[in-house]
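User: Show me a protein chain along with its predicted structure.
Assistant: Here is one chain, sequence first, then structure tokens.
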Amino acid sequence: MPELDIHRQAQTVPAEPILERAAFLGTKGGSVRRLSGWRQSHIVPKEHNSFTRAFVQRISEEELTERLESFYTRIKDAFGYRRKQVATSQEVGFASCKTPDFSLELSIGIDPEDPARYLETVCVTGIRSLETLASEAFASVFDRQFSQVVFEYSQGFGIESLIDLLEERNDPALKLHYPPDASRCTVELVAEDARMVFSGCEMRFVADGNLDIRSLARALVRGHELLAPSGIEPFSGRFPT
């Protein structure tokens, strides 16, 4: 598996972008009627507003608590942490679990695109080392939890330059989609069932469906290999094979 260097200067920007945050994201959802706090007297939300957001968060409190406790136990068992090494917190609609190697954030709320459904989000960030990602412990806890990896940089990508370089390559393994103003660009990785979305200071890797950690890593590395000739260096380190 190739080494990838995020600190190498990209050719598509005038100065070196610095990776400020990397996050692994996964979502799943369902009908609000299936939440534990649902009562027959309740009305299914038809709009996305502050009232319906608060309503869905309130009736999903039990699910959020159970989810946090499940992750807490699995993380402690897999990594061998002591009680003092893991800190949890919970408030309405949001919970977190901080460990010596990473931070976990959980949330449950209304689906903005379909108010009759809820969305549950799992986010792992603050990862201290690539060894953590490559560990059996991490895979045992988070396999099939993620479908996206988000990289946030200190400055924006040169989207127009990126588009021009990729179009000049005319690589059949890549398909480009972008609006007329070239404010963002989606690079579809044809053979990987995945895509990389560049917008502002963010590069978002999106897979079709939640993958196990190794499959997600392989697809991400493959995406890097395809983009590397254009000067894009989105991630660094050695992933498990």
